[in-house]
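Sequence in, structure out. Go.
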Amino acid sequence: MNIEKTELETTPSETGVKERVRTKDRQGPDKPSEPPPPAPPSEPPAGPDDPKPPRRGGGFLAFLSLLFSLAALALAAWMWWQAQAGESAVEAEAMAEIARLEANDSELSLKIKQVRDEVDSLASDGNVTAEFEAMQRRIRADGEKMAEVEQVMREQMALSRSLQTAAESLQGRLLAAEATVTNLSTRELDAGGELDLAEVDYLLRLANERLKLFSDPEAADQALEVADMHLAALDSPMYLGVRQEIALARQSLDALEMPDYLGISRRVDKVQAAIPELSFIADEAPLEPVADEDEEGWWAKAKSALSSLVTVRRRADTDIQRISLEDKDYVRQRLWLQLEIAHLALMRRDTRAFRESLLRVEETLGAWFDPTKDGFDGVSAEIDALKETAIEARMPDITAPWSMLRTLTNNPPVERPAAPEGPAAGEADTEPSPEPEETSEIEESQG
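Output:
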């Protein structure tokens, strides 16, 4: 750094005006200008030996110059230190990179050496060339096979894509055809068709009620048959699924094996008819012993003499079990009513009540009637057989036709045209409201 030197000496030829101009330049441009001092009185020129007058402000300027020099020196030192630190970091990074490259170089050299050793070992063998050529041929053959396989796979993928496209196209056509058929079928619906659907709905529900509540498969099959006839009269492809479900339900009803309720009822009637013929326990009086002819004379005389005074009664253990005619009638009526309860349980298809009533009949027989008499064994065997008879059949589920019909009627197609004037779908659904009364009338007529 260059530092401006201050002239400390002046030539003797310089005048006092020149010294004042220099002093002004040293003060700097920032200082305000001061008016020049008044000119001193003229003096005679000094000689060469006269002492030089002292200069003002020279020490302060030197101090400022020293400060600037020190600041510049510190800045230069700091910049040098930063440069040295950056160079050391770069040098360390370069050394690390050099070490890594040397390690890679050594590893590569080792691999090259191994390859050379393998090549030398192969070169030492006489059949290496032939084996190498055979290996190349096998590699080429494998490559050709792979190319053929890839070609076949590409063809198969193209074929599968074409088949998928054809399937999607066919599915779209089927959906369009189904929508067209549905639209054609819904356009033909009118008020009469709505009423027919309501009647079919009622018949399907009636079939379920007859089967579930009354175990009457014949009435259920008849209701399904009439419902199928109504759907066939509609001649609409939309209800083909409902008709198929009706056919399946009728097949399940035909395959149902129902007990012979009339035969079971006749057997119970026979047991009731056999009740009057049963004999009670100790029903016959014991025979009195016959007196000997030798004792008849004096015994008759004594009996006639004492008959007016003493009454003699003989009582055996069997007399305790004798009952009156009214009690016998009561027991027979009770037995007959217990069998009648079995009749009612048979009509309700209640297996538990049927067997409990037969158990009570069996208890009554064992308590009051003589098992050694004729007719008792036949009645007891018939009651045992009736207890083992199944009177309740496992009914199939025939709700599928009604469920499908409700699905079709409650979820009509979107493009369904407006219904004509007349009874609407809601009125058709609410029309069969008096069904319970009609059902009760049917039950009363069948009863």
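Check: DSSP finds 14 helices and no strands in the chain. The CA atoms of residues 201 and 402 lie 7 Å apart.
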